[in-house]
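Q: What does the assembled structure look like for these inputs?
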Amino acid sequence: MDWINNFVGGLTAGQQFALFSLLKVVIVIFGAVLPIVAYAVLVERKVSAFIQDRVGPNRSAPFFVKYLPVVGPFLVRLGIFQPLADGLKFILKEDFTPSHVRKVYFWIAPAIAMVPAMLALAVIPFGSTLGNQKMVIADLNVGILYTFGIVSLGVYGLVLAGYASNSKFSFLGGIRSSAQMISYEIAMGMSVIPLFMLVGDLNLSKVIEYQAGTTLGFIPNWLVFKQPIAFVIFLVAAFAETNRLPFDLPEAETELVGGYHTEYSSMKFALFFLGEYTAMVAASAMMVVLFFGGWTLPFAGLDHPAATFIMGFAHIGIFVAKMLALMVVFIWVRWMLPRFRYDQLMDLGWRRFVPLALANIVLTAVVLWAQNAK
Amino acid sequence: MIVKRAKLSFWERLYVPALLGGLQVTWKHFRRTLFGGKAVTMEYPEQKWVVPEGYRGAPYLVRDQTGDTKCVSCQLCEFVCPPKAIKIIPPGPAGQPADRANAEKMPREFEINMLRCIFCGFCQEVCPEEAIFLQRDYSLTGLSRGEMIYDKEKLLALGGTHAGVQKWKDKLDEAKEQETFPVKG
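A:
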């Protein structure tokens, strides 16, 4: 440990910042997000299977399983090794580029679909502190604005894929995704305004601080209880933004073959797939931060920044647990509701949620004004 | 036709009852499958479907009650077979005599290409000797095309004896009785 301390101590403040930021990026993206994404696919398949009275993936077993007496077969039944097989399949498949596509855009689109979802994670505080490092990659003062700015870039990947593929299905998928994303972006953005009126700061760490503690001794101070309407709008809009059922119109397998990714194969398709799940991770993380108190729990002193490493890891664990619970909700809802028709989708976005969000802003403003006037 | 749309109440238009109903149904299925072990999936190589009596699977040749080949190499099945899956080589003038006493011949080779066979049952229907039957095997596997062409020995081994159907037994008894004189009424 000494040489680490000496090495870090010898760096200038700027170098230390760069080093720790890099470490956080690498650990968060490759150590947490990508495995979570891979296993979210497995959970999705398993939960879907159980809801449909099936058993789900339970066969893939690498060679070393036969040396594990009891645990091995159990893990195989859980499908623990399935994501490895899936990943291997995507890498080894032929990366086919059809002759009729616009090649440059066709190659750029998957990256553009994947990157914004990952960038959105940069401002999420996924824990309090470890040592003297804040557990957030970029502690921006305009956190939420950054998120909205980046998340809305995700639609370019889909639209570009639809345009570049030069096929009807992809094109329709691209058009649908742009219309859907734009209309729900507005409702989503307006739904969180009341939160920041309450908190008085755009920094997401401050939002979490605001949610520490309890009201009446047992209800956590989470914003989901103070702003239920905002939460509902945000939740629905998050479903629409991440193209999850019941708003999966851009890919709508039954109507558009695969939607914007019809012409894609191999790793390029996998990038869209990962992008979708990363967006789901980002949306869940965002909801945890905004509505469910981030890394805090309102008891056992877990709602103020950690002093020790153990508490620091406990906070990260709490955050991840909350996020995973929300992701299960995403998966669960998939098998609950049929897909919305296109006009119903637009109707719900523009004529229900936008006015509702506006009304919520006004209501919150009035309540705050009345409280301050006392 | 005009479909009357039911007027929804405000509560229903909030999607809330639909949401709650959906949650309830999906949760019920999830719980039953995960904790109750009520999955409908049959996990194939370990669990196999037991086909019902009278199922028409793969056609095999059968032996009679004394273990003799029933087939007399008439080639009707070869002729009627829609996908031309059956190939029969007759014994020829100087070939091996039939197993059975009262048959003139039996096939030198009898092959069914199980990759071509469509399990239609025409061979069983057309067979005058009741020598071929569609049996209950439905899952035939092999590692090569050659392996999937079943020859006479294999078909007879798989078919077993079909002692329940004894077409010629009565005729044979009758014929034997007529060998002694005077013939009994």
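DSSP finds 15 helices and four strands in chain A.
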